[in-house]
Amino acid sequence: MNNENTPSRPFIQRKRWLRWLAGMIVGNLTIAILYYGTGLLLRAIPYESGGDLILWPSFFLVPMFGGLVASYIWRRLNPRISGTIGGAVGTTLLGIVGAAIVFKEGIICLIIFSPLLLVVILAGTLIGRIWFKGDPTLLRCSVLPLLAVMAIGEPLTRTNQPRVVTDELVIHASSAKIWPELTAFPTIPEPPAFWLFRIGLPYPQSTTNVGDFVGADRRCIFSGGAVFKETIAEFVPRVKLTFDIVQIPKDPELMGHLSPTRGEFRLRDNGDGTCTLIGSTWYTLHVRPLWYFDWWTQYIFRAVHLRVMEDIRRRAEAAS
Amino acid sequence: VSGSRAFDARVFLWVVRHGRRLARIPTFPYLFDALLLAWTSLTRPSRVAAMELLEEKALQIDGVTLRTHRFGGIEFHHETRGELGHVHGHGLLDVRLTRKLAGELIEKGRVRGHHVFPASRWISFQLEKKEDVSYAIQLLELARQAVRRECAAASHFPRERSA
Questions:
Q1: ipTM over 0.90
Q2: How far is residue B112 CA from its own chain's centroid?
Q3: DSSP A99
Q4: Which one is predicted more confidently, A169 or A140?
Q5: A residues 44-63 lying closer than 8 A (beta carbon) to B
Q6: How far is B157 from chain A (nearest CA, A)?
Q7: What is the pLDDT of residues A17-50, one digit of tens each?
Q8: What is the pLDDT along chain B (163 residues), one digit of tens a residue?
């Protein structure tokens, strides 16, 4: 005989889903509040005066803590490993959508950030799953000093030094044929092959040049109307063209994350009728962890270089 | 051995053998283990199912609770005998036995020496599917008995223990 006070199975199922959802929402709210608090602190304490000590937690510790909070909400569901993974994926997706809507973050940035965010949130949820399985009220103080060491330790080893990514391409043409093609070039006819360009990351389309002398203005025009304003810094015909990037487009994918500062094309005569075109971009990253975002930055710059350099190669080889 | 299987094992071994200093970075082991688990759930869901079943069965052993392992993963902890073993995010179960027992089991071929300390009392057993769980539980039971014997021996030979 059914007890009238016993909730029906669909009701319990619904409550389970609500609890999963509540964990995802509360976890993300925790992350958002802590990010907001970090932002306020950063405004009060300039980056150079120790504000960077606060910035680090926003990358690892805040999402991990969000995962821990989500796990606390889910503790009565007694989640298994697969359930926790699913919950972490849901929390990450909700966070990504929320960041796109509320913080107006660029989609490409969020796609790049999402694997890292997932792993960090997952680590938090997995720790929480074990912690709250036993005595859910137990305060785990041992991790707090570790988090403090982590928060303080990373900025001490951090440098904002410029980095460089360089690519080379062999062109079957003389430097006399290649040089005119790299100082400025019309719209690249080929559609982008690189997957991030296909889903919306701006890609190089053309370059204009007001003159072949040091101090001349250049414009590197990307898809979507994004324009990088540049000034020629070194001009050695058939050997080297260096330009400083003086203004970058106000794109959410770039602003506050990455500052490209300089670009360069070098030509090396191989003595066998071919030349090696060497393209370099110098940049400074403002996001951490450096090793993760630097990998992505180099991956993307390489695609930018190759799109431009391949076009130069095609035109130079066609002209010779 | 399939590509993905070899890949996660290679990455794990490389990190634990060459990147042991990374384990000193707070929370790094948890992040690495979460990464392993995420990869395993994509490439080897049967391992994750086996890990879940192992967890369920291990909790039925008297006095066993779960803890987060200091080098990442889930630790099977006995209330009086301490750590019996732990399972990493890619389903590698490490169990602490006696040296003699470890040697005997390694000789039989189903388990292998510990991935970092092969000539120790620790052995490693790779969970692949749910059918492996009964053997894994036997290993944990052996660990419980081995630790009990060790404790008893230590009480007779306190100097040896402190050495």
A1: no
A2: 11
A3: H
A4: A169
A5: 60-61
A6: 33
A7: 899 999 999 999 988 888 777 777 666 666 555 5
A8: 344 456 777 778 788 777 777 776 777 888 889 989 999 999 999 999 999 999 999 999 988 999 988 888 999 999 888 899 999 999 999 999 988 889 999 999 889 888 877 778 899 999 999 999 999 999 999 998 886 666 555 554 444 333 2
Residue A240 sits at φ, ψ, to 5 deg, of: -150, 135
How far is the alpha carbon of B158 from chain A, nearest alpha carbon, in Å?
Answer: 30
Strand order in the sheet with B92-96: B64-68, B74-78, B82-87, B92-96, B122-126, B112-113
Cβ–Cβ below 8 Å for A80 and B55: yes
Which residues of chain A lie closer than 8 angstroms to B31, CB-CB? 60, 119-120, 123
**Residues facing residue A276 across a β-bridge:** A170, A268
3-state secondary structure of A244: strand
Token pair of A180, please?
A: 């005119």
For chain A, list the domains and their CATH numbers: 9-157 (no CATH), 163-319 (3.30.530.20)
How much is the pTM? 0.66
**E strand or H helix at A131, and its extent?**
helix A107-131
- Look at phi and psi of residue B93 and say left if phi exceeds 0, alpha if psi is from -120 to 50, else beta: beta
Query: Average pLDDT, stretch A36-65?
Result: 67
Q: If you search the block for the tokens 């894994």, which residue do you land on?
A: B136
Bond from prior residue into A249 cis (ω within 30 degrees of 0):
no
Cα gap A88→A82, rounded to integer Å: 10
